[in-house]
Amino acid sequence: MLPAIPDLRQLRYFVTVAEEKHFGRAAARLSMTQPPLSQAIRALEETLGVQLFARTKRSVELTPVGADLLPEVQRLLAGAEGLRPLAQSLARGEAGALSLAFVSTADYGLLPLLLRDFGARYPRVRLELTEATSDVQVDELVAGRIDAGLVIAPVPSRHAAQLSWLPIAREPLVIAMSTDTAARVAASGGGGGGGGGDPHAEWLDTPVSLRELADAPLVIFPRRLAPGFYDIIMDCYGVAGLQPRVGQEAIQMQTIVSLVSAGMGVALVPQSLRNLRRTGVVYRPLSESVPAIETGLVWRTAKVSPVLAGFIEIVRAHAASADAQAARVP
Predict the structure, then answer these.
(1) Domain assignment of residue 88, yes or no
(2) pLDDT per position as a tens digit, 123-181
(3) Where is the HTH lysR-type domain (predicted)?
(4) Are residues 66 and 33 in the same domain?
């Protein structure tokens, strides 16, 4: 019984005969004798159910079908020849795809740096990026729908056996307020007297106390999305002896900042969110001692592809650089 599809050897024979237009020259080029070459071409024609060459005693010409088929076969052979280097690139993590999710806060500090370095080192890797909250990312990871995620600590303990965690950056919380609120605090001498600079500036170094903003509603995300982060924010109020009044809830940090700009309240956000410049919003450090927010990479321990291993290596380098920089700060 004839094979259902031709093999690559037959296809190479077909291309060589088509290029030489002579069985003898094609056989010499292929380092074989003419009879087995002719037999292989006939077997190919029988497999395909078409005549590829019009033969006479003096010439060999492609039939119209053969002429139309030739460029398709050439492309197929080129693709087959590329399989070995492609497989080696995939094994080295230099090609393939990486599905990465990230929390919105990472988009304003950590994520662009990681993507820049990863893209420079692995330009052939296709990145599939998705913005998602920490809880959604963990669920997607466990289900195998993404390769890794940039999340805010902590990772749920129930998944500790399945997931690996690499802390990357720690940053303090700052308070985001509307320019009207900033002007009010400045007029009352908040943050060290005299107003502490232009209240409409996007960032003021002069700290402000949560007590000065105790009457402002808190704009925050629902606790179910990131309970650890939510509790840290609430603890900041508790340490200051305050009970926050939640005014609005929103899922994304961009939305939270937009609500702040509209005068709907204040928000405690990671310091990197200062890079989200929004008209009508001022960011200021807190005078209270606040815990750092930790962002890191999480992935399935048992599923580390070569591409993911390369990304983890870059993340480790960034984490080491952040640790070294933090150690230099007095």
Answers:
(1) no
(2) 989 999 999 988 899 999 999 999 999 999 888 888 889 999 999 999 999 999 999 99
(3) 6-63
(4) yes
Residue 3 within any structural domain of the chain: no
Nearest CA among 89, 41, 39 for reference residue 63: 41
| 289 in the same domain as 202 | yes
Band (193; pLDDT cuts 50, 70, 90): very low
Nearest to 298 by CA among 108, 116, 150, 82: 150
**DSSP classification of residue 221:** -
Q: Give long-range contacts, CB 8 A cutoff, 24+ apart: 159-164.
A: 162/300, 162/301, 162/302, 163/138, 163/298, 163/299, 163/300, 163/301, 164/298, 164/299, 164/300, 164/301
Counting the structural domains of the chain, the total is: 3
Which helix (H) or strand (E) segment is 47 a member of?
A: helix 34-48
CA angle 83, 84, 90 (to 5 degrees): 85
Is the same domain home to 65 and 102?
no
Helix, strand, or coil (residue 150):
strand
pLDDT band at 96 (very low <50, low <70, confident <90, very high): confident
Distance from C-alpha of 257 to C-alpha of 151, rounded to nearest angstrom: 19
Residue 42 lies in domain: 8-81
